[in-house]
Amino acid sequence: MASINRISLYFFILGTVISQGYGLLESLPLVSTVVGGIGKKGVLGTVMHTLDDTLAFLPREPEDAAARPYEASFCYDRRQPCGQHKWDGVCKTGKRQSPINIRTKQTLLVNASKNPLEFNSKYSRAQSGFYVANNGHSVVVQLRPKGRSELELHVSDLNLTFRFSHIHFHWNSLDHHKGSEHRIDGHGHDMEIHFVHYRSSFPSIEEALKSGEPNLAAVVGMFVDVGAHNHALDPAIKAIEKFALNDTHGHRRINETFSVSSILPKTDRFFRYQGSLTVPKCIENLLWLLMEDPIQISKEQMKTFRRVICHNCPEHKMKNVRRAMPRNERTIEYFNAHGTLPTHRKEEVTPEEDY
Ligand SMILES: [Zn+2]
Predict the structure, then answer these.
(1) Mean pLDDT by 10 residues, the chain (355 residues)
(2) How many Å lie between the centroid of ligand 1 and the Cα of residue 195?
């Protein structure tokens, strides 16, 4: 009986989706509440996944676009047809793809008397209220529903200004697999956080990504290791725990203060190179600014990320690490006000099973 109910409700929902199409999205929270409510009674729990899978292929609400700027059907597991080894287009043919393994002996030391990364005053101010979302490929934290903020990063030696869009996170589903996308001499970290910015001359991140222009966006990448508790990340991690573990239905507004700059490590040592988005469609012309020194989060905080569910991925538990791509002929600059080269470590090879 239960299976008949399950099938008939699925076809009822599918029929409604097909007949009402985009208009249904207006009432999406209502539909998900109804199904969620039945699911809680233990009768139709599996329908929730089927419904999510179906809705994943429909257009999103305009407001959702900022939380899903890279919308595409893909996953990471190399054993799956949607896995990263099968990503096509620029992901396959591009010559300036990210992430990369940075070999410290190949980096070019830049003798800069002052740090070229200048964050504006809004950057260091705590913001009242922020948004959190599970976009099916990562969890995203942003300050405005459409990703447009007043936080700016000026890269002084290139005379380029970028507007902060959002933060998202990369991690692996198992403790003993490294969760950072970039590697230094083959060494990974437990997580990597990406602070995504787009050139301030564009009205939105989507317009910047579509433009194909050089330096259309800048990503500040930050390594994370498990260690001490990170209080600056508390508001974001608590919000993920409460709203984004399972929920792929858009943003949740969190009425708490949050400071983006307080997460950044207090360092002026970083690597810089020309790369790409690390998710399909792997758009190139991105400026990567990769901080050398990691920050720390506690084991408990790390656990929250390992509990995030990916409804559209076969592997179910989210892992979102792209393997290192060829450096090709790219120059990797290394900025260090003290004028010393990065510490070289014996090269480590990441096993294929980690991806
Ligand atoms: Zn990323």
Answers:
(1) 45 39 29 28 28 30 40 78 93 98 95 88 92 92 84 96 97 93 96 97 95 97 97 96 84 92 87 97 97 96 94 83 96 91 85 79
(2) 8
Instruction: Compute, in angstroms, the gap from residue 114 CA to the centroid of ligand 1.
Output: 28
H-run or E-run covering 48: helix 45-55
* Residues facing residue 154 across a β-bridge: 118, 161
Q: What is the Å distance from ligand 1's center to 139 Cα?
A: 10
- Cα of 277 vs centre of ligand 1, distance in Å, is 7
Strand 127-134 versus strand 333-335 pairing type = unpaired
Of 215, 214, 223, 323, nearest to 278 by C-alpha is 323
Q: Which two structure tokens, joined as six digits, stand for 173?
A: 């589903």
Ligand 1 centroid to Cα of residue 291, in Å, is 14
Question: What residue ranges do the domains of the chain occupy?
Answer: 2-59, 65-354
Is residue 325 within 8 Å of residue 102, measured between CB atoms? no
pTM score, two decimals?
0.80
Residues in the 5 Å CB sphere of ion ligand 1: 194
CA of 158 to the centre of ligand 1 (A): 23
Helix then strand then coil, % of the chain, to nearest 5: 30, 25, 45
Burial, 206: exposed, middle or buried (Cβ in 10 Å; 0-12, 13-18, 19+)?
middle
Chain centroid to Cα 80, Å, comes to 21
Query: For 65-354, CATH number?
Result: 3.10.200.10
